[in-house]
Amino acid sequence: MQHARRRGLMASACLVLLVGVLAGCGGSSSSSSGGSSGSGGSTTGHMGGTMVLAWNGIGSSIDPAVDYDQNWTLLNMIYDGLVTWKKVGGSDGNTLVPDLAQQIPQATDGGKTYVFHLRPGIMYSDGTAVKASDFLRAIEREFTVPGPVGSFYQGIVGGDACAKTPKSCDLSKGIVADDAAGTVTFHLTAPDPDFLQKLALPFGYAVPSNTPDKEVGPSNPLPATGPYMIDHYTPNQEILLVRNPKFHEWSKDAQPQGYPDKIDIRLSLTSEAEVTMVEKGQADWMYDQPPSDRLNEIATQYTNQVHLNPVPQVYHMALNTRVAPFDNVKVRQAVNYATDRAAIIKAWGGPQVATPTCQILPPDFPGYAAYCPYTTSPGDGKWHGPDMAKAQQLVAASGTKGQKVAVICTPDEASKAICLYFVSLLKQLGYDSSIKVLSAAVEYPYVQDSSNKAQISFSYWYPDYPSGADWFDVVVGCNGFHPNSSASANLSEFCDPTIQKMTEKAIQTSVTDQAAANQMWSQVDKATTDQAPWVSLFLPKHIDFVSARVGNYIFDPNVLVGGILIDQAWVK
Amino acid sequence: MSTVGGLEHPIDPLADAPPEGWVAGRSPWALAGHKLVRNRMAMAALAVFLGIVVVSFMGPFYADHIAHTDPFTSQLTATTVINGKRVDVLQQGGGVLKLGETPIGPTWQRNYFLGADSQGRDVAARVLYGGRTSLTIGIGSAVICSLLAVIVGMVAGFYGGVTDSIISRGLDVVWAFPVYLLAISIATVLLTQGLTIGPFSISASSLWLPTLIIAVIYVPYVARPVRGAVLSVREKEFIEAAIAQGASNRRLIFNEILPNVITVLIVLLPLMIATTILTESALSYLSIGVQPPNASWGTIINDGQQLLYTRPWVAIAPGIMIVLTVLSLNVFGDGVRDALDPRAKLRVKD
Amino acid sequence: MLTFVIRRMIATVFVVFTITVLVFLIFFHTPGVDPARKLAGRNPSPETIKAIKHQYGLDRPLPVQYVILMEKLFITRDLTSYSNQGQKVVPEIVAATPVTLSLVLGAAVIWVVVSIIMGVAAAVLRGTIFDPMLMVLALIGISMPVFWLGEMANLITQDRYHDTFLFSWVPPLGYTPLTQDPVMWFKHLVIPWLVLSVLYIGLYARVLRADLLETENEDYVRTARAKGLSERRVLLRHTLRTSMISFVSLFGLDFGVLVGGGALLVEVVFGLPGVGLLTYQSLISLDLPVIMATVIYGAIFIVIANAVVDVGYAWLDPRVRPA
Hints:
Chain A has helices spanning 72-78, 133-144, 159-164, 195-200, 271-279, 292-301, 329-338, 341-348, 388-398, 413-429, 440-448, 469-475, 497-512, 514-531, and strands spanning 50-54, 83-85, 96-98, 113-117, 175-178, 183-187, 228-234, 238-243, 262-266, 285-286, 306-310, 314-319, 354-356, 404-409, 432-437, 456-461, 534-545, 555-556, 563-564. Chain A is of the alpha+beta class. In chain A, helix 13 (497-512) packs antiparallel against helix 14.
């Protein structure tokens, strides 16, 4: 997915940085490789208190059918789905566990049918019971409520028809809900190895079966199943979560009881203000990444309150493979050779905040095998330095010198800095380059629309779930390219038939043999990197800056949390 | 035109030469000029303003020959020599974590006099270049605005009637549209695609866009006094006399109305430039004015915002330049107004 | 008089209407701006975009879309934002208004009081060194970009001198409602009040001084002096009162603009979630319904302020009424 904010997928043990200090509670360790460190009885003393969070958003949708990752950190504490990812730290945080379902079913009928048995006795915060038909309503709303995500569930029987005519959407054949027996049966048109992962996304959260097709607004949130519920939401000012009195813990892995009594989220703050608030203890955590000019300050003066964790987000320059000069693979490779990733990382905040990469897949991802051809002394999979000579050679051989290139970015500081670097670099390589800054609201749809002929733009990709398909079948795959549409995630318009065949084979194989599929994804990664639809730049580290009183910091890498497990942190 | 020296020597209008003892008088323009020159504060302000203009346009010279830097290319990995030691321009953070890359602060020497910004560029050189841009846009848009306002105001004032009504209503609408809102709206839209009218096309990163936008939004501000000046002249009796004598419209406009209008413009111009410079800096600060790779004082203040707590000079320096420029224009403008029209009925809001 | 008022009101409505049409055209008809794409969120499929277009009536002709928008805004009042789709626009503006009002009212009190003192002092002390000194101060106030002054204030109060007794009370940037915590509300607003008022103090001090000096030459003032009234009496009773007419009318106009969102630079710099900030955010994110609503809100305030000032002026000074 694009434009997601703070996410984490798999922590790497050796990159753990620091521990949250808590005075008085007998210490606590929190490392991203460890699991949840609260152990039984000694933690009851930490129950209670009000946790204050600071966010510069104006608040996003609190309707799970509409919100696409802005609010997922909150939504996953309020609502539940059939399955979810474990709420623990470390790479275990990416394991699927049953949530409102009793167990994770095996797919039957050639991988096309899943039968879930609901846990009995779970209630919404308004007292009504969770029923099987609630899930039918939830998925139907993905199509009927105006929003982004019908495509995730189009594989369900009836999904295609729903996508075409949402008004008459009827998924009752694809999702058979038996309220009496408490079972939900999904029928797919074709086996989908990632189906369970898709169900774990908030789009699959249970909603009362009488929820209408309109988006839910801040004044009337949906009733909660999780440990917290929304007390009130004043747009631009505050969201207040309080304990859900009807919640009882049914699975510690899926939805543990939370420690703070209240969670108070302050909105519309500037990142600078947020840093100051956390420093002074007026906020316990800042949602947003600290601005780069405060990094040194918090790192040196509040060292123990800073936590760094890697995330599978790949920042890159997307090169349009159908527009000159980047329609020539030599040119794309040349830019890859010439790019000094260390300089780019400096613009981002230094080598402790970002790690360089040359390829598509991020480290520790299923199918990742370190590969970097675009460096001096290649061979060990690591990037060492730019190879300007090779780059000049390739440019000369391509015969494209002197052509005009416009580098597109958004007005934020880092984006401008990186684009200006590429403008200078392209000039050095002999092109007539210039920078084109588009406002954030306009830039992303603009670069997706192939009729705009965007040549090179600064972008990133953050996977929705840990599968190679989310990369090679979406952002650099044929299925992700829709010509002349502003909804075309494949900015490079890259579609290579050979690689596409490899991708399809890998998807097929992963239904039965994940390990073999992962081998195939490595090959796809290598082949795609060689074709250079991107100039892969770096993977940022996610920075959590917490106040001095916060204890039990746990970094949960899965896409719902992608950072600190808020309700598992101690404020008392 | 000549003025009468005194009543004790009656004039013979048919005489060829002025009678002896007469002192040749001065034209009102000359009088005003003389008064202005004797206004020391106004002259000092003019000197400051011209000084700033000269220094700003010497930006390229400073960058090439004094600072030896290119303030427009990316300098992320650049190094420089301070006190004999070669240091990185962007330096890694300290402590255990070593987070962040901080640009060097002011060296107060030829290289990086005011330090570097977050891309390693020389701030002092950029402030000078930024001055070029800000002054060009400020003066350019004030001049264009005046031209447009003169046309609009004169047409409205001269022809009167329905034309005047329509134009005045139009000015009302533009004027009621809050200046900032109008500017932001137009800028947001035009900056995406640039402007194309028939054969003329302006790219989104051209300096013409902010210039034209600012010029257009202040037209009502200038057109009203212009129109007022036209109306006030029209009503004077000597116009009636001139028309009775058979003077053509053209003669009226050029000989009677235009000089009056020009007085208004001369008084307004320094203040207009001050206003346009402030407006341009506000728009650039909001990232909808001057676009990269061009720099103006406003964009540099925006850059400095990210570095405010660590390298404040990036934000302080361009601000000081703006204050000095606008202040000197305001003082000079006051002097001009005092010289030309000390009892100015122009209740201009600065 | 009544016809004058009615005529002004009609003109007001006409102007606001024109503004809404202009804004609509600017934003709805711009190349590169596709409201349906924005509504569709992240990574939609092309079919989703088409469906949304239809659902929101964005595939209808422009005049129809305009009418639908106006209807949703004024009649059914359920217009929702494009950026935050559950969020109704009108409550959003209503929530932001007290912030702007707090900012502008506080600053207005400060600038009116200080500028009157400065203007009167400068006029009375004409001939001494204080007059030009005060006027230079006023000029400096006018010459500072307000956003820069705000940044400098932040630099001093939030960072450099934050830990000293002078500024340790300054809270981080943001806003607390008056009803929630009056002390905090005050602390958040003090520095923004001062920054916003600097510009206007300069303007109004100069205007007042110029007005005072001009009315000094009027015949009725000379008469008062000739009658033997003291200078102070002359000043306070006669000249000040007349000068206040234009002072008040200017104030009405400026106040209208500021409440309508003109304080956006101060709101941006100090992180105050008022109407100005909302306007700016909606413009930047091309959130068309919110843009339309904030523009109308602002235009209404300004135009009403204009009309009130015109009417008030005409009522106060019969010479000004049109024939």
